User: Fold this.
Amino acid sequence: MPADDHATLAADTWRLMFDLLVRSRPERDAVLARLGLTANEYKALHSLDDQDGRTMKELAAEWQCDASTATWTVDRLQRLDLAERRVHPADRRARLVVLTPRGAAMRAELVRAMYAPPADLLRLDEAQLRALHEALTPLRHDRRVDSGTVTA
Amino acid sequence: MPADDHATLAADTWRLMFDLLVRSRPERDAVLARLGLTANEYKALHSLDDQDGRTMKELAAEWQCDASTATWTVDRLQRLDLAERRVHPADRRARLVVLTPRGAAMRAELVRAMYAPPADLLRLDEAQLRALHEALTPLRHDRRVDSGTVTA
DNA sequence: TATTGTTATACTCTATAACTATA
DNA sequence: TATAGTTATAGAGTATAACAATA
Assistant:
């Protein structure tokens, strides 16, 4: 295939990656359906932990939603017994939202399943996979640019 | 980095691709914001053309929504002067939804911009890009598996 | 009678504004 | 007075069910 200049080559390269992602989306949708969660509940669980907790203000910023929407979302997680509110030890106005044991287990399973490689990728043989892994390495990004965004 | 077996290597490879996609999502969000469209309007425009048109039934199936929701969506595209309904020549119950000239132009610009390679990818040099392109080639998929899904 | 599409209606998710309780 | 969070309320987007037109 002719891909003469840098821009054209980048466009076709991206198209291959993007198509794989789009094609594999039904696999991720199936994970959410199996666990009975919405994409937003996934995003919400993703930014919680069972240790320190996050304030409502932090969560609203991370989810890029209004404070009242964060209240609504946490209410729902709480009703599902996935998260709970605790009083902030240093500021009695604030809340610390933490995962329940059930929420922590759900989050672990979600992250595992949502990050699972799609069927198309698993079909590559060892050599193909190694070549791809190596070619992708320059794109590795250690720092978390926007931890709130967990969907594509 | 140790990536000993096939599954681990696939997992890390996928993580690199997926992270790039997640990281570049703000670029796609910015395209929609600039054009004043929602993600759903993008999806809707994506499955239309200015030639043959699609029936409401086909659109509801492709968008995986209720028929009444498809009605609502097409109403909005119509109010935005992006699409219009025509009577189906062979079945007077049915409608054919086609893009207006404005809609066709908008769709072309949208697809161009939404498929544009992200900044991180463009930063690769010629050799890196060629290696990545080659490594992705086994994943090329010509047929459209699920034309309704256009987001990752 | 069956099918295509719309309308009436309700439910979910989102935001804005007013409010409560702390700081 | 300012800030963290909730509540009251309204709008956007979704679905279900009843309906109209046509096959």
